[in-house]
Amino acid sequence: MPAHSADTSAESPWPLSHFSGKLRAHIDKVSPTWVEGQLVEFNMRNGTAWMTLRDLEQEVSFNAVAWRNVAGTLDGVVSPGSRVVALVKPSLYEKSGRLSLVTHRMQPVGLGDLLARIEQLRKSLASEGLFDAGRKKPLPVLPARIGLITGRESDAKKDILRNVGLRWAAAQFEIREVSTQGPMAAMEVAAALGDLDADPRVDVIVIARGGGSLEEVILPFSDERLIRAVAAAHTPVVSAIGHEADRPLLDEAADVRASTPTGSAKMLVPEESVERENLAQARTRMSSGVQRMLQREGEWIRAIRSRPAMAHPQSMIDVRRDDLTGLRRRALFSMEARASRARDWVDSTRARVTSLSPQSTLDRGYAVVQTSGGIVRDAALLSPGQDVQVMVADGEFQAEVKNVQTHRIGDA
User: Fold this and answer.
1) Do the Cβ atoms of 240 and 207 come closer than 8 Å?
2) End-to-end CA gap in the chain
3) Residue among 146, 134, 157, 176 nearest 267 (CA)
4) CA distance 146 to 176
């Protein structure tokens, strides 16, 4: 026979009794463990307690048994429906293959213990920043669609629908009816929250429940998974749990807390009659403001029009025309004066130039004598009988040298 289960095969299997013994030996190694659940069945037979334990949130159940020495301490202490913690050790009955939990100790979970756990969870989540005011989102001024999570046909649902409708008749809802008490409440509320948070039409989500016992109100709405889902939601969440004495952790994680479902209606939508009155007052103020502005601007325009420049705009043209005439006159006088001065300068310059010209010298009776070699400046260069060209003021002629004298005019 194979020593280990991994060595078995179709040709060399274990007998079922051998497998059962191996399985029991493996289970017997499990140490006693404290578990928490709901006691759904409790029957005493011949001093032995036969029980059924169910998980608080999942559909998981185990049969449990308490032998005579333990069962005697449980009778009258626990009852079906109560929440209990128990020290159990699994046991396998080999003949039928039935697994049961042998109970060594069991005690009900008191409300004080539950509240202590919630307080510890409150401190833990607060240290993570899940309750910080800085992360809370403001509510929309006028939500297009309101997501509502509430009990099936609950008074809270009717209350919110009625009061919101009275305040704002056009309000629209997206409703999810879930269990709001019991072991499955937190999971159903969290699932509905995720569904509404993913809907882009929903602008705000309300989680509502009416009053009830402390255990019914506080426990489901202080579940850690629900609190984390509320903190992670992108849509603003309103907690409307009708319990004033003790606040569930949902109130801390939600963006806004309403003391009652009725109070949440006042937070969700404005009152239509008040808004209409505010609009009418705003329109009146706006109309009065526009009238005052028009009157003020009209007076300003009349004041502008009464000024000389606006009352007699032609006067500005007349003044500019007179200025232009004066400027033209001054420009003309200036140009005439400058032309006269320039003309006098030209005449004066011309006279000076004329007086210095060779013609002016000739006009005074002088003559220019030239030979083939050029102008004669020294009589010694001439000889008697030599032909010369003589230029006078009016014409020129040829002459023959008769005599040459070399003294300068004016010499003694």
Assistant:
1) yes
2) 179
3) 146
4) 11
Instruction: Give yes or no for a contact between 223 and 182, defined as CB atoms under 8 angstroms apart.
Output: no
* pLDDT tens-place string over residues 243-301: 655 688 999 999 999 988 888 888 999 888 888 899 999 999 999 999 999 999 999 98
Residues 142 and 164: beta-carbon distance below 8 Å: no
Kindly state the helix (H) or strand (E) to which residue 88 belongs, with its residue range: strand 83-93
| Cβ 388 vs Cβ 401: under 8 Å | yes
Domains recognised in the chain with CATH numbers: 13-109 (2.40.50.140), 114-270 (3.40.50.261), 361-400 (no CATH)
The alpha carbon of 17 is separated from its chain's Cα centroid by a whole number of angstroms, namely 70
pLDDT for residue 79: 85
Instruction: Write out pLDDT tens, residues 314-354.
Output: 888 888 888 999 999 999 999 999 999 999 999 999 888 88
Q: Is the pLDDT of residue 390 over 90?
A: no
Q: How many CB atoms lie within 10 A of CB 207?
A: 30
CA distance 91 to 102: 6
